[in-house]
Write a structure and sequence with these properties.
The complex is a heterodimer of chains A (about 110) and B (about 110). Chain A is mainly β. Helices cover about 0% and strands about 55% of the residues of chain A. Chain A has strands spanning about 5, 10-15, 20-25, 30-40, 40-50, 55, 65, 75-80, 85-95, 105, 110. Helices cover about 0% and strands about 60% of the residues of chain B. Chain B has strands spanning about 5, 10-15, 20-25, 30-40, 45-50, 55-60, 60-65, 70-75, 85-95, 100-105, 110-114. In chain B, strand 9 and strand 10 (about 100-105) form a beta hairpin. The chains are: A mainly beta (about 110), B mainly beta (about 110).
């Protein structure tokens, strides 16, 4: 069991470039989440998904899009990166409901210049 | 507004000491509260999850308590070890109508000195 994996681990972008972060889980979890972690802010929810083919906005969704075409994968896209999106991005998953423990990936560190 | 606060932001103790980390939250309408550990450059690892109907949970040297009415939780670490050095995050799952909200505190950075 790899648990939750994230690709890439680190990326540098120039303002205006686009990229996609990939999250994969092998635990057959229904729920998946994308968070960002910034100094002094704690983790904040960007988008989440309660099942294959469904997505919903979290606390800070602007500038991001997501897709859940397969149950095991949750993609986070930045269409036009901005310096304010420099952060560490974490993906997480939980079994059936948001009331259960979330399992986190190792994170993707993104720097936007 | 639903908020989670952790005090202190940083703590340094000598090895072997017992210590308490604090978490407070602004709304008592919660499903559960979780304590996570985060090592530098790594993801979060769940340590303990306390349901709103529970008062405490224990795992090895860790004991977490929950007082929902006062909006407080503590994480007690017994006989601390250098390997306990990490950032400890408290996260509260608040009722959110159609969408429950997991709100994180900003963490307590713990350093256990050998």
């Amino acid at each position: 069991n790899a648990g939750v994996t994230q690709t890439p681990k680190f990326r540098v972008l120039k303002t205006g470039q686009s990229m996609t972060l990939l999250c994969a889980q092998d635990m057959n979890h229904e729920y998946m989440y994308w968070y960002r972690q910034d100094p002094g802010m704690g983790l904040r929810l960007i988008h989440y998904s309660v099942g294959e083919g469904t997505t919903a906005k979290g606390e800070v969704p602007d500038g991001y899009n997501v897709s859940r075409l397969k149950k095991q994968n949750f993609l986070l896209g930045l269409e036009s990166a901005a310096p304010s999106q420099t952060s560490v991005y974490f993906c997480a998953s939980s079994h059936r409901t948001s009331q259960e423990t979330q399992y986190f990936g190792p994170g993707t560190r993104l720097l936007v210049l | 507004k639903q908020e989670v606060t952790q005090i202190p932001a940083a703590l340094s103790v000598p090895e072997g000491e017992n210590l308490v980390l604090n978490c407070s939250f602004t709304d008592s309408a919660i499903y559960n509260l979780q304590w996570f550990r985060q090592d530098p450059g790594k993801g979060l690892t769940s340590l303990l999850l306390i349901q709103s109907s529970q008062r405490e949970q224990t795992s090895g040297r860790l004991n977490a308590s929950l007082d929902k009415s006062s909006g407080r939780s503590t994480l007690y670490i017994a006989a601390s070890q250098p390997g306990d050095s990490a950032t400890y995050l408290c996260a509260v799952l608040f009722y959110g109508g159609a969408t429950n909200k997991l709100i994180f505190g900003t963490g307590t950075l713990l350093a256990v000195q050998p």
